[in-house]
């Protein structure tokens, strides 16, 4: 049974609305944290979103932007702002693979659900292609945010805004 076109359009509109909502939430987190701190320091959400050092929340963890295909994964060894050593011990970031795995499962589920809703349960090939393409496109973000989340959750580093080395 084919889904009526109107229903497909409504689902699409809802998806766009949802994404817009996420975007304004991100903007709110950025601006909210900047308003709280007069000296333009990052709140924890803002710091995570921007990939900042967990100790000073000023220095960048990564050298290049996520759209830099060759360099998206290159990290600074030490924080450019406070000198914190990001890889505290050899192999510290192996644990980030588990975060990455969880994110991949999330991407898989959300993409599959969208394909199911938008294309009225198409063939298995369509799912495989869609999940493959979306995962590949999001790989740089997945890689970076896995390391960022892992650092913030498990490095045990405390926020020290005025620390300099
Ligand atoms: Zn730092």
TrEMBL record:
<dbReference type="Pfam" id="PF06170">
    <property type="entry name" value="DUF983"/>
</dbReference>
<protein>
    <submittedName>
        <fullName>Uncharacterized protein (DUF983 family)</fullName>
    </submittedName>
</protein>
<keyword id="KW-0812">Transmembrane</keyword>
<feature type="transmembrane region" description="Helical">
    <location>
        <begin position="6"/>
        <end position="30"/>
    </location>
</feature>
<feature type="transmembrane region" description="Helical">
    <location>
        <begin position="98"/>
        <end position="118"/>
    </location>
</feature>
<dbReference type="InterPro" id="IPR009325">
    <property type="entry name" value="DUF983"/>
</dbReference>
<keyword id="KW-0472">Membrane</keyword>
<feature type="transmembrane region" description="Helical">
    <location>
        <begin position="124"/>
        <end position="141"/>
    </location>
</feature>
<keyword id="KW-1133">Transmembrane helix</keyword>
């Amino acid at each position: 049974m084919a889904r009526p076109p109107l229903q497909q359009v409504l689902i699409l509109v809802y998806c766009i609305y949802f994404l817009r909502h996420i975007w304004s939430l991100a903007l709110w987190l950025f601006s909210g944290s900047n308003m709280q701190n007069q000296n333009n320091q990052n709140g924890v959400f803002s710091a995570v979103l921007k990939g900042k050092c967990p100790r000073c929340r000023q220095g960048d963890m990564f050298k290049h932007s996520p759209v830099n295909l060759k360099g998206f994964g290159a990290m600074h060894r030490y924080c450019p702002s406070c000198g914190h050593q990001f890889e505290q011990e050899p192999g510290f970031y192996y644990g980030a693979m588990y975060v990455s795995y969880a994110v991949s499962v999330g991407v898989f589920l959300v993409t599959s659900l969208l394909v199911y809703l938008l294309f009225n349960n198409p063939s298995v090939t369509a799912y495989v292609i869609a999940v493959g393409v979306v995962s590949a496109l999001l790989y740089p973000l997945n890689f970076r945010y896995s390391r960022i989340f892992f650092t913030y959750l498990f490095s045990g580093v405390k926020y020290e805004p005025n620390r300099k080395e």
